[in-house]
Amino acid sequence: MFFFALTVLLPINSTMFPSGDGVVKSKLQVQTHSIWDESSVDNNRTITQCTDLTHNDHPCVGGAKVQMFTGFYLAFTYFFTFLTLYMVNRHTRRILRIRQDYLGTQSTITDWTLHITGIPKELKDENRIRQLIEKLIIGDVVSITLCHNWAPVDKLVADRSKELHELERAWSVLHRKQQDILKAKQEQAVRSTSFSVDQHDLLDVEDVALGRSLTAEGINLLPPSLSEELYESYRPKLYIWYGPFGLCTRLVDAIDHHEKRLRQLDGHILTAHEASYDPADLAFVTMDSTTACQMAIQALMDPRPRVLLTNTAPSPLDVVWRNTYASCNQWRLKSWMVTIIISILSAFWLFIVAAVATMLSLCTIKKVFPKLGNAIESHTWLGAAVQSGFPVLIVTILNTLVPLLYEFLSYR
């Protein structure tokens, strides 16, 4: 574009506008007129002559030359438009080729896997999905995982994680109490040993050192029966509700209760794994190469809207598995809700920033706190910090917190 503008348009422009770019310099004091002079139009609205933008620099020329001049600009407008489209198309193809070459070098399972959503009822079978993809003749299917409604299993696993957390906390409380008891017994043993040496001076130094080493190693110096009583008395307790409508309570050992619940949940989970569940409308398909995977993603599986949609599969760590068995209506509802909430919050952020900028303006501060406003005005650095630094700080904090909030909304 620069080449054609320099070699074609610039000479034409210089011929039509000898003074340069058509802008009159102030020191020339020349009156500026339009390229179409009123005197050049007769009663039939035909052009007879024209004047340059600089009235005193260019002689009158005919209408044919003006039409040729404007025709050049019109032609090059189309030329530059088609040239821009050609360059954009060329660079797009180059980017796609580089992307395909890069994807072809990837060899992980994630790069070979795609996920299909909106599977109709007649295709909710792994063999049927395999046949559908292999009919495209783009590659071989290595494996297919059709998601099912695993909500009961997920609930049991969540309950097990909660019970395991409570059991670990109970053991931590008991361990801390044991450490406190052991520390108290060690201090008591050291005091009794020091008292014996000071009063009687009958113990050998080696025996005293041996006694201190035994207490430091945590050897119980109390009788076994007393140690068991202390151990049982310091075990954490828990109130459980039972009976009709859960109106009765009972005090039980927390560790034993959580261990019992954990064993029960393990049995329920094993039983739930053997059960069969309804298939969902989402499946993960692993192809034999990255090229086949990309071709399957770009292929149109079904002409109906929102049916058999293909996309790249995320990493297993990034998959929210509770969303894999959600229906399309639930996905759509969640997507709309997140979009609406983000839109409302975006307007809310603008209101906050505008309100803060108004409150930190010097005029507002002087109206509310005159002395503070005068102090800020008298100090250059303080005024710059209040009027420029604080708004930037607030905007930076919002920019830091907003992505975290959006991520929370997306995962919820």
TrEMBL record:
It comes from the Eukaryota. Residues 334-411 form the CSC1/OSCA1-like 7TM region domain. Residues 113-323 form the CSC1/OSCA1-like cytosolic domain. It holds the Pfam family RSN1_7TM. Keywords: Membrane, Signal, Transmembrane, Transmembrane helix. The chain crosses the membrane at residues 71-89, 336-361, 381-406. Residues 1-22 form the signal peptide. GO terms for cellular component: plasma membrane. One of its GO terms (molecular function) is calcium-activated cation channel activity. This is Calcium permeable stress-gated cation channel 1. It comes from Ceratocystis fimbriata CBS 114723. The gene is CSC1_1.
